[in-house]
Amino acid sequence: MEYTKKSLRELGIQELKKIATSGHKQEKERKLYQKLFQSDEWKHAHVIGLTISNEIEVATKPIIEVAWKEKKTVLVPKTGPNRQMKFFQVDGTTKFEKTKFGVFEPISDRFFAPDNIDLLLVPGLVYHPLGYRIGFGGGYYDRYLANYNNQTCSLVFQEQLNDQWVPESFDKKIQQLFIDQ
Fold first, then answer.
1. What is Dmax (Cα atoms) for the chain?
2. Average pLDDT, stretch 88-98?
3. Which family does it belong to (predicted)?
C-alpha cells in the first residue's frame, strides 16, 4: 500500500508524539547522538547547520552544546520570501524569535552561504530507507538542498522509517541516515 505525503506526515507526527511521551525518547536520542558524534561527517565538519527542534523531534540543543564545546560554528536557518531559507551563525548570546509556524529562528546577521556549511542536519517526519524524507510540508529544505553540495545527514528514530511511498523528482536524498537501532 502506498501512502500520500499528507497521510505520511500525519503518521510521522503521531509516531513522534508517541516517542516523546514513551519515556524512551532520551535513550533513543543518546544512541543517535553517539552515532553522529562518532561519524566522519561530524569529525570533519567545522560548520554545522541545524534547526532548533520542537518537543517531539530529536532534541538539537545537546548537539549544539557539543558543537560549541568542540569549537564548531553552529548555524540555524531563517525563512524568507518564496519559501527560501538562509543559515545564520548562533552562539550562546543569540536571541531567537518564534515564527507563526512555531519554529525558533535566530536574530542574527551572520549569514553563511551554502558552500560554507560543511554538514547539514536535515529534519524530517518520515524517512525512506533510501535516504529520502518527508518534512513538515513547506518545501524549504528541498529548495535549499537543490543548491547545497556538501554533507547531509538526518537523525532518525526507527519508527520514522517507511518505504511505502515513492519519492518525487524534487525530493532530495539525504546522504547519511543515523538510525537508533
1. 49
2. 95
3. Belongs to the 5-formyltetrahydrofolate cyclo-ligase family.
Cα-Cα-Cα-Cα dihedral of 20, 79, 88, 56, to 10°? Answer: 0
Cβ-proximal residues to 178 (8 Å cutoff; 6+ apart), any chain: 32, 35, 36, 39, 153, 154, 155, 156
- Residues shown for the chain: 181
Model confidence pLDDT, tens digit, residues 9-20:
999 999 999 999
CA angle 166, 36, 109 (to 5 degrees): 90
d(C-alpha 38, C-alpha 82), whole Å: 37
Q: How far apart are CA 86 and CA 45, in angstroms?
A: 19
| Burial environment of residue 48 by CB neighbours within 10 A (0 to 12, 13 to 18, 19 or more) | buried
Which triple of cell numbers denotes residue 64? 549544539
- The structure's pTM equals 0.94
Query: Side chain identity at 12, as an amino acid letter?
Result: G
Q: What percent of the chain is modeled with pLDDT above 70?
A: 99
Q: What is the mean predicted confidence (pLDDT) over 139-154?
A: 94
| H/E element, 121 | strand 119-121
pLDDT > 80? residue 117: yes
